[in-house]
Design a protein that fits this description.
8% helix, single chain, elongated
């Protein structure tokens, strides 16, 4: 499956657990409720993909392009998203606890109601570019007040 092209494919409820999907094109693909636990998606393209309720626990999402992808209610616990592009992605009510978000672009990302507790390598500056609300569970040491100050340019 490495470097494959599945653009626009309909694959809801599929299982790709522990699959090697390195560099695969999954743009506009329907992977809703799919099992991608511990999958290797290094350098994959998932622009505008439907990943609602997908299970991505422990997945390697390093340098993945998830622009405008829908990850509403997805499970991303302990996933590695280092350097991923999540611009304008929907992660409302997603569980990102323990995930690594080092260098992730969160510009316009919907994190309303998302669980960010225990997230590794996330900054106030990153969160200030995202959409959060009072239901968002922030990582320890980051407060809504800090995010608001960053957005206002006070930090």
């Amino acid at each position: 499956l490495r470097w494959g092209d599945f653009e626009g494919a309909e694959m809801p409820w599929s299982s790709f657990q522990e699959a090697d999907l390195t560099g695969t094109n999954l743009s506009h693909t329907n992977l809703s409720a799919s099992n991608l636990r511990d999958a290797n998606l290094l350098d994959a393209v998932l622009q505008k993909a439907n990943l609602k309720n997908a299970r991505l626990q422990g997945a390697n999402l390093t340098h993945v392009d998830l622009q405008r992808a829908d990850l509403t209610s997805a499970s991303l616990q302990d996933a590695n998203l280092t350097g991923a592009d999540l611009q304008k992605a929907k992660l409302s009510s997603a569980n990102l606890s323990g995930a690594n978000l080092s260098g992730v672009d969160l510009h316009g990302v919907d994190l309303r109601g998302a669980d960010l507790r225990g997230v590794k390598s996330i900054t106030v500056k990153q969160l200030a570019t995202a959409v959060v609300d009072m239901r968002t569970r922030l990582p320890e040491g980051i407060t809504f007040k800090q995010i608001q100050k960053q957005k206002a340019g006070e930090m």
